[in-house]
Amino acid sequence: xxxxxxxxxxxxxxxxxxxxxxxxxxxxxxxxxxxxxxxxxxxxxxxxxxxxxxxxxxxxxxxxxxxxxxxxxxxxxxxxxxxxxxxxxxxxxxxxxxxxxxxxxxxxxxxxxxxxxxxxxxxxxxxxxxxxxxxxxxxxxxxxxxxxxxxxxxxxxxxxxxxxxxxxxxxxxxxxxxxxxxxxxxxxxxxxxxxxxxxxxxxxxxxxxxxxxxxxxxxxxxxxxxxxxxxxxxxxxxxxxxxxxxxxxxxxxxxxxxxxxxxxxxxxxxxxxxxxxxxxxxxxxxxxxxxxxxxxxxxxxxxxxxxxxxxxxxxxxxxxxxxxxxxxxxxxxxxxxxxxxxx
Amino acid sequence: xxxxxxxxxxxxxxxxxxxxxxxxxxxxxxxxxxxxxxxxxxxxxxxxxxxxxxxxxxxxxxxxxxxxxxxxxxxxxxxxxxxxxxxxxxxxxxxxxxxxxxxxxxxxxxxxxxxxxxxxxxxxxxxxxxxxxxxxxxxxxxxxxxxxxxxxxxxxxxxxxxxxxxxxxxxxxxxxxxxxxxxxxxxxxxxxxxxxxxxxxxxxxxxxxxxxxxxxxxxxxxxxxxxxxxxxxxxxxxxxxxxxxxxxxxxxxxxxxxxxxxxxxxxxxxxxxxxxxxxxxxxxxxxxxxxxxxxxxxxxxxxxxxxxxxxxxxxxxxxxx
Lengths: 343, 321
Fold this sequence. Notes:
The structure holds two protein chains of two kinds.
Chain A: E1 6-21, E2 26-42, E3 46-50, H1 57-65, E4 72-77, E5 80-81, H2 87-96, E6 97-100, H3 114-124, H4 130-143, H5 160-172, E7 178-182, H6 190-207, E8 210-215, H7 218-224, E9 227-232, E10 235-241, H8 242-247, H9 252-260, E11 309-312, E12 315-317, H10 325-342
Parallel strand pairs in A: 3-8, 3-9, 6-7, 7-8
Antiparallel strand pairs in A: 1-2, 1-4, 4-5, 9-10, 10-12, 11-12
Chain B: E1 4-17, E2 20-33, E3 37-41, H1 48-55, E4 63-72, E5 75-76, H2 82-88, E6 93-96, H3 100-103, H4 110-121, H5 126-139, H6 145-148, H7 158-170, E7 176-180, H8 188-205, E8 208-213, H9 216-222, E9 225-230, E10 233-239, H10 240-245, H11 250-258, H12 298-302
Parallel strand pairs in B: 3-8, 3-9, 6-7, 7-8
Antiparallel strand pairs in B: 1-2, 1-4, 4-5, 9-10
């Protein structure tokens, strides 16, 4: 993506949680919720991040926002490395990055009017006079399709779709550049989902927003994203332009995900090789993370970890089957050498 | 198609709230044949789950079944004593709920919960029951059933818990399974496994399934006949191929157009259905879809259409036909 300006770059992000046991909280191991993720998002672009529950996609979103410190790696926003900066400087960047949460029922304060919720960020960042803030809240409510006079109402007086609009308004009040949408549609009915998708698309155009769109729903991601990253057990296993990914999925996991989506057409010929098992917990080991469920696994896959390699132009896949042979041999060879050293 | 197993006639389930009477299910009629999969599709509040609970006599107060008949193998379930209903539930008719974490008892081992169903309905010993439990867990694809039956629900993943629910539901080889959003809480790859499992068991045991879901994709994959519900009413009733090829009701058409990702990529506007579902306590006069319908005309605001079949087509509740 050289032609576009990079707004966000995520470099080898890891987030490990210790598993502790007993009174002394001895560390028994680690859960590798996010394990070495790299990507860039260009300004104005939408990157879809898909994966199933527990794959680490939401944790990654929280790490990017600085809500969780990464165990390793760095988040670079508009050229500035955010790791290690704190206080006022971080506050400044926080303003430029916002999040829309999944569940508009639990992410809005039930005892606060929606006008106050939407304007809270303005207060925290000390923007404008009270009157100006009120004006800004009215303006943004109108933009997202809410009636400005409803600013005095409480969240329970709104329907699910309207509440999600409130969540969107809250995120946009500060004129952010990057918006992380964490499953913003999952709690909504299909007909309302479509309304919110259209709204997000319009807002992106009007305000030149950049989205990291986290979702488990492949059809939604296909509709809204420029590029899509597929995550499995804390790692990116594939990254490509949206249509390229859906037309030519390179990773066996991506193929399984696409096959598993029920198609709203009774005549669609059913293909599928359903995955036989469930995802194991993120674990240690020097092998491909998808190997236990992979229908195409070879003995080679148990010997080394494949790298995320450019399979076709702009299409990156983490699978030995898609890697050029030389590289495969290099990785396996290096690993074997490493083992020999230990012994 | 074989003989009729369940026939629901003119079912009305109302909730008498302080704010008024909410007609959650209003004159719903349908039938399910032996071995058939009937899908009910609709959005939150359309009455699909209340219909399911009505069939099992599980409507909580202030809900009442105001009128109608529920004929199961010819017997009206609304006219039998509660004890008889209890012996039907879990035996001839069983149910799979959406959220297996809340519908399994957290303080009992899953094996014991399945055994409970068997001991309740069959004259067998504990030992026989536990042998049967192992067999059932094997059938629903749980590895090492002898050890997994000793697990508590929290020790299992969502997919495994849903398999336990299914094992419990098929324990007594029911004639009818009511599955209320059985895969909504699951990941897509697990959903595909569970739907495959349901289909296999249905064929092996010859059970009929009443499948309730909001997902048209699941309907297309599983159902033979489909009811589309809106504000407590059936608005369209069709064979599954017919429904997807030729959706008649503007609501059904709207639902199908709202599905993202069907051709056309980023930037294409979705044809969303405008507005929101009206409150059951404050329904519009005339057709209940008139507030959101792109085709509504004056008659739609005056009088509610009947569910009727236009010549050569399937039943639909709309003045356009």
